[in-house]
Amino acid sequence: MNASQPGPMSLVPFVSVDDMMRLVLGIGVETVLTELGGYIEEDFRRWESFDKTPRVAAHSDEGVIELMPTSDGKAYGFKYVNGHPKNFQGGRQTVTAFGVLADVDTGYPVLLTEMTILTALRTAATSAVVAKYLAPKGGRTMAMIGNGAQSEFQCLAFKTICGIDTVRLYDIDPQATAKAARNLAGKGLTVIPCASAQEAVQGAEIITTCTADKQYATILTDNMVGAGVHINAIGGDCPGKTELHKDILLRSDVFVEYPPQTRIEGEIQQMPEDFPVTEIWRVMTGQAPGRTDDRQITLFDSVGFATEDFSALRYVHDKIRGTNLYQNLDLLADPDDPRDLFGMLDRRSASLKVA
């Protein structure tokens, strides 16, 4: 082959932010949430086939950088993701991410993609898929406490997957609530901005908490939570960061993704090591009960787990096939002779001299 040209096995599909937006808008946001939810549920149902480990986290005073890997024995996926609450003050996202899907047999990546938008979609889809098993039947109103970058995705996922028709918004920053209300206008939801968290939860069968501050916080107090509600707690996602008063946990049946990670990062970090929880995959496969009565308080203590990102990577890999919604990156060295990497470099040197 020409020493200056990429080899046939050097190219890896790359989905940029613009490509991801075109993909999502071409399919439709709510359709993507529904389809992605199907992939996530499918992978939860085959939970035992995955390698599982708590994410690898590097903490600092300003935030956290994490790697989230998993494999089902055929494909391997990982996500790089950060969480820096003060970033928005400088015009940056609190959370950014990218991810890779690879073939286990060869170790070659088959996809490199942005995952900032994709993480928001997969988090919302996961929340709503879990709520199918835990939320009260016929619930139509959700309180959305924390109206940052994730909030609209959560609201639309619960609309399309769970059938809610009303969202009650609250954020300590009124501009965030105004932003969310503006973005949700015309999306088929009744949107009610609220002046406090207490006001937001009034009449809500589902309560979603999604705040960013990296601290022990009390977004919900025990007296705010009535019987029969489902709490979708997605803001607690690292050590030292919680949103719920511990008394709420004592009154709730708590469901988690992967206990070894959630006990470090989730709401249950406030509780003893033997505090009882149910893994959500067991509910989805019929091995454990979800919601059992009308007065039960269910709590999904969600911190995000690598299988959900794996599902999202699988989804995008399938969806871009046969489209122009990606670019081929010259990412992998592909010498004529796999043993002659130096020769490829040396021949390239010669071609540069000729040029």
UniProtKB/TrEMBL annotation:
Q: What is its EC number?
A: 4.3.1.12
Q: What class of enzyme is it?
A: lyase
Q: Which UniProt keywords apply?
A: Lyase
A GO molecular function annotation here is: ornithine cyclodeaminase activity
What is this protein's name?
Answer: Ornithine cyclodeaminase
Signal peptide residues are: none
- Superkingdom, taxonomy of origin: Bacteria
Note the InterPro entries from the entry: NAD(P)-bd_dom_sf, ODC_Mu_crystall, ODC_N
* Alphabetical list of PANTHER family matching this protein: KETIMINE REDUCTASE MU-CRYSTALLIN
The record's annotation in SUPFAM superfamilies points to: NAD(P)-binding Rossmann-fold domains
